[in-house]
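Support case: user asked for a sample of complex input and structure output to validate their parser. Sending the pair below.
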Amino acid sequence: MLNAEDVRVLYDKHGPALVAYACSFATDAAAAEDVVHQVFLRLLSAPVQTPDVPVAYVYRAVRNAALNARRNGQRDAPLDSNSSVFERGNGNREAALALQHALAELPEEQREVVVMRVWSGMTLEEVTAATAAPLNTVASRYRYALEKLREKLQPYRKK
Amino acid sequence: MENLDEHFEKYLSEFQPRRPRALPEPAIDRQIRLRRLAAAAAIAAALGASVWSGWKEQASQKAPDAANNRSAASREQTPRRTLSIMELTRLAVENPTDLDAALEAAQENRLPRFDRRDSALHVLAME
C-alpha cells in the first residue's frame, strides 16, 4: 500500500520521466503533465494496493490515463511544435523537439524501456521487474530503441 | 557497441524532461495539521488531567493539615488571660501549683513588676 509519502517520493523521482512517457500518448507536453499530475493526485486522495514494483503501477496508470484523455478529446489539439517536454542545458530546442518526436515514433514497449532506463534511472533488472518482461527482451528493446533514437538525432548531435 | 550505447545514453540524459508542477500541499498539510492538532489536544488533556488530579490530591492532603495548623495556631495565638490580683491571691491560697503555672504563663506575655506596691508578687512577697 502506497502512503502519501511514498507517492511524493515516486513523484519526485519519476515525475519528469513520466511526463516524457505520457507525452508519447498525449497530444502535447501540457496534456502529458496534466495526466501525470492527475494520476498522482488520485494516488494521494485514495491509497491503492499497488504491486511489488510501484513504479510499474504508475507507468501503467499514466499510460492508461493518457490514452483515456486522448480518447475523450481532452486537449485535442495538434502537437504544438513549440511545446517541448524536454529541455537541454545548452538550450538546443530543435534537438529537444526532435527527441520528443523520435520517442513518440518508437513502439510503445521500446519507448517505455528507454524512458525508464534513461530518465527514471532504473537498471535493466528494475525495468524487467516493472514491465514483467524477460531481461533479454528488455535488453533487446532497449538496444533497438537506442539505435533508432541515435539515427533520428544524428543531425543534431553534430551541431 | 556498449561503449557507443553509453555515450549515447549520456547524450540522452542531457535532455531533462519537464518537471511536473508540484503536488498540492494543502491536502496533505490539512491531514497533518489535523493529526497534530488532535495530538496536541490529547497531550493538553492528559497534562491538564494529571495536573488537576495532582492538585486535587495535594489539596485533600493539605486540608486536614491546615485545619490542624489553624487550631494549633489559634491555641497559640489566643492571648492568655491576665489574672487579676484577687485571682492570683486565691490561687496562691487554694492551689500554689496552679499559681506557679499561671505566673509562668503570664510571664511569657509580660514581666510582672516587683517594685509596685500593688503588684501581686509584692503582696505575696510581703506574706
